[in-house]
């Protein structure tokens, strides 16, 4: 049997700075107590998630939500709290200029402005030591005929080429896709195929980011994962879960079986090996639940799915598949999925000097009471404003 006490533990999960700020829907942002007032405090909260899980050593930034004067100082602050700065997420979707698109806008002035922001994000990566530039474009059209679908792809390719040329030696582009929202007729990067086509044209430092909330209902995400790993172009996950649209709920909450199936393909495709270069990130908003606890729970959910995926008896599965034993093969997967891995993960945590129950330990730590007392007037994540 697989050594469960080692492997899921090696999986490191990046948390997003925006998960710690207030968020909501377009109907209402509920202000929570103790939320961070600036990027420094967001990183301090992310450090708590790492302290109690031992599995969240980096935090992703979103620019301009996390803009500061001195990124070296912010990086040093992160290090002093035993975490690092991870991916830099560009934001070319919250400016009036971008109503008709950012890098695909018909107006060259707007395209220049958007591309300059992406280049600025690479400057920030140089200062923070980040490897990954995550690009998500809200660009698209609402009405048939509104703009030339092909010309928009040409503009996108041109901007991506310029940014790709600016990347340092080990820096990468993660190109995220999304089928819908905010554009309702065409999104310019709607799916993994479009992302992959652009990545292949750019070169090996361009890879696809799979946000689990960005597909049509019923889409087989684990198939996409298998295909991208096979092509060597799975760069990252933005993990979250959804019931209806891009709900950004805690990963593993809506459909833990889907998360298991995804992690099974990750294991199958060698994606747990850091050399494969898959970044495991959360992209979530905790609109009604406490944020730090929501992140801890999410990290644990990914660990549980991973532990179960590692329990799959690969030899038994292969032999059942090769002999056409449909039910036997399915049973191998289901046996692993139906195993309660929580005691094993608790053992792993204890062996690492962590609490067996990270949520209880965090609740007992007094951190929440401390930030509620210290912080007044916390910041908004950026969503739902
Ligand atoms: C878009 C998205 C993208 C953004 C984030 C805040 O829906 O998933 O990753 O950067 O949300
Ligand atoms: Mn995302
Ligand atoms: Mn999203």
UniProtKB/TrEMBL annotation:
What name goes with this protein? L-rhamnose isomerase
Task: Please provide the record's keywords in A-Z order.
Answer: Cytoplasm, Isomerase, Manganese, Metal-binding, Rhamnose metabolism
Q: What Gene3D superfamilies does this protein map onto?
A: Divalent-metal-dependent TIM barrel enzymes (3.20.20.150)
- Which InterPro entries does the UniProt record give? L-rhamnose_isomerase, Rhamnose_iso-rel, Rhamnose_isomerase, Xyl_isomerase-like_sf
Write down the superkingdom of origin.
Bacteria
GO molecular function per UniProt: isomerase activity
Coiled-coil intervals: none
What organism does the UniProt record list as the source? Actinocorallia longicatena
């Amino acid at each position: 049997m697989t050594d469960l006490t080692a492997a899921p533990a090696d999986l490191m999960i990046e948390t997003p700075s925006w998960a710690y700020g207030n968020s909501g829907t377009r109907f209402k942002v509920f202000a929570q107590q103790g939320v961070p007032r600036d990027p420094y405090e967001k990183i301090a909260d992310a450090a708590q998630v790492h302290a109690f899980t031992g599995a969240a050593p980096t935090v992703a930034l979103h620019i301009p939500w996390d803009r500061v004067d001195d990124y070296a100082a912010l990086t040093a602050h992160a290090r002093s709290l035993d975490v690092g700065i991870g991916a830099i997420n560009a934001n070319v979707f919250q400016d009036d200029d971008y109503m008709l698109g950012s890098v695909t806008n018909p107006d060259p002035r707007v395209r220049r402005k958007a591309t300059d922001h992406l280049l600025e994000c690479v400057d920030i990566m140089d200062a923070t030591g980040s490897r990954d530039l995550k690009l998500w474009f809200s660009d698209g059209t609402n009405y048939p005929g509104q703009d030339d679908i092909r010309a928009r792809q040409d503009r996108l390719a041109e901007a991506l080429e310029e940014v790709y040329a600016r990347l340092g030696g080990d820096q990468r582009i993660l190109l995220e896709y999304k089928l819908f929202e905010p554009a309702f007729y065409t999104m310019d990067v709607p799916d993994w195929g479009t992302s992959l086509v652009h990545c292949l044209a750019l070169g090996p430092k361009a890879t696809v980011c799979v946000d689990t909330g960005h597909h049509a209902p019923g889409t087989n995400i684990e198939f996409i994962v298998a295909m991208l790993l096979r092509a060597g172009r799975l760069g990252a996950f933005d993990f979250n879960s959804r019931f209806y649209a891009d709900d950004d709920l805690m990963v593993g909450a809506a459909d833990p079986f889907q998360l298991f199936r995804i992690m099974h393909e990750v294991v199958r495709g060698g994606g747990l090996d850091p050399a494969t270069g898959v970044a495991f990130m959360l992209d979530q908003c905790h609109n009604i639940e406490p944020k730090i606890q929501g992140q801890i729970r999410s990290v644990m959910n990914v660990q549980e799915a991973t532990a179960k995926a590692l329990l799959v008896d690969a030899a038994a599965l292969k032999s059942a598949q090769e002999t056409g034993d449909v039910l036997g093969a399915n049973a191998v997967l289901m046996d692993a999925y139906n195993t309660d891995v929580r005691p094993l993960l608790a053992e792993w945590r204890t062996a690492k000097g962590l609490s067996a129950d990270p949520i209880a330990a965090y609740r007992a730590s007094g951190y929440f009471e401390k930030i509620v007392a210290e912080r007044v007037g916390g910041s908004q994540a950026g969503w739902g404003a």
